[in-house]
Description:
By secondary structure, this protein is mainly alpha-helical. The protein contains 18 helices and no strands.
Amino acid sequence: xxxxxxxxxxxxxxxxxxxxxxxxxxxxxxxxxxxxxxxxxxxxxxxxxxxxxxxxxxxxxxxxxxxxxxxxxxxxxxxxxxxxxxxxxxxxxxxxxxxxxxxxxxxxxxxxxxxxxxxxxxxxxxxxxxxxxxxxxxxxxxxxxxxxxxxxxxxxxxxxxxxxxxxxxxxxxxxxxxxxxxxxxxxxxxxxxxxxxxxxxxxxxxxxxxxxxxxxxxxxxxxxxxxxxxxxxxxxxxxxxxxxxxxxxxxxxxxxxxxxxxxxxxxxxxxxxxxxxxxxxxxxxxxxxxxxxxxxxxxxxxxxxxxxxxxxxxxxxxxxxxxxxxxxxxxxxxxxxxxxxxxxxxxxxxxxxxxxxxxxxxxxxxxxxxxxxxxxxxxxxxxxxxxxx
Length: 389
């Protein structure tokens, strides 16, 4: 179908900045910038966003300059999200803000770091990177005189909290924040948030495919066993006879991304046409996402994910590094939780008594904000007597 647009250029079911539910703390208007553009700008200028440069997804920062970091991944997710939002006549600025903020709560060392903190925090409610992202933008960022956090709009906070769907059993911090500033956790998020979530999947799997080949964990020829990759490879060869081996991976990956984006747009339009929503509220109230892969693409994406899980995330080289990093982070937690006077002053003031729940949460927030590099340096400072504190 032709995309339905209103005079403002957006679909009837798009979120509109002029109808935003606003911010927890009232602020003057932003002049020429929309509320969602201001959110995006605040996220980009946040300390947590800058730290993403040295937070990795699979490879620790010192393993090479060409592998993705959380920062480059977030930028790539934002690019894909804007492309899909534009095709669906949604608010691109909201989709971009959510894409840029979605990884702010990730700790150092990728999923290994998250697993390590979750183990240490189990007596205190566990650790969830989505909840930590919300915590970063509502409490931990300390940049403004009048409030903690970034004071983002309700729509951006809603999308951060539940971009993967309704939260029946929210993580403790999300539940705590929802009591202060209700985010309608029982409903789906906006179409813009759904776009950001799917853009994350598209970017993550394809860029790990690229990085895995670059790192020598598997070859392009092995990945071509997957139908989706095989089709992209055949298209690349048809378009470029005699394609040099060193350029083949890039040609394949961009074609897989393009296929996933086109499929998302087509399937989302089909679902939206069947629902015939008249507002963003209708999208939120629907019983399933409207932004999604087709069944065929979902199967192909799951095959790619399973391949990466076996050949990359469980590769012995990756696993060895992951385990070393997990142990380092768990030791840091143990040392600082048992003696929080080793924390920097701001974190020490929040920690309270050694071994207490307050100390656990303060230490967890401190560690979650670290880059890979800083975490390894802090480990050396706390375990090597020859290094000054």
